[in-house]
Amino acid sequence: MSRVSVLFVCMGNICRSPAAEAIFRHCAMERGVLDRLSIDSCGTGGWHAGEAADSRMRSAASHRGIEISSIARQVIQADLADFDYILCMDDDNLDHLRSMGVDQRAVLMLEHHDSHRGQGVPDPYYGDGDGFQRVLDLLEVACGHLLDHLGSQHDLEE
Predict the structure, then answer these.
(1) Looking at the DSSP assignment, which residues form a beta bridge with residue 88?
(2) Catalytic residue at 27?
(3) What is the CATH number of the domain that holds 143?
(4) Of 76, 90, 129, 148, which is most buried, counting CB atoms within 10 Å of its CB?
């Protein structure tokens, strides 16, 4: 069985997209379908390439039993062809990927899988600790719905 590949994209790949990657991985592991998925994250900018996720986001996620261990990287052209699903955190990220020529069918806003539509996933980087909690709340719901969707589309669960 081929793996379904999912890429989460935000601005710098140190807050939202690594959190989405970790939450999605955690949900997939709990449901027993992790081995059927390939999961990664990246940023539209390269400012933080090679860095661990923001310590505030790692701490907030850790309190929920979720480990964020990815290292930041910038999106590359090959990502646009290599991933089955590309999930953006906000309109700016979506516009950036479109300017790179991404296949419109492959890229979605992550919020498409949540009832919190129309606002994107807010960037908590310049805010306080509550912003990180709010983002994690949104990501947990959206990632759960995304996994439901992929499960029904690709028959992930046996």
Answers:
(1) 9, 109
(2) no
(3) 3.40.50.2300
(4) 90
Report the DSSP pairing between strands 4-10 and 107-109.
unpaired
Total domains present in the chain: 1
Backbone angles phi, psi at 16, to 5 degrees: -70, -50
Q: Would you say the C-alpha torsion 103, 23, 130, 128 has a positive or negative sign? A: negative
Alpha-carbon Rg for the chain, nearest whole angstrom, is 14
Q: Which two tokens stand for residue 138?
A: 């949104």
Task: For residue 108, give its domain range.
Answer: 4-154
pLDDT one-digit tens code per residue, 8-49 = 999 999 999 999 999 999 999 999 999 999 999 999 999 999
Q: Tell me the C-alpha to C-alpha distance, in Å, between residue 102 and each of 26, 85, 127.
A: 27, 11, 31
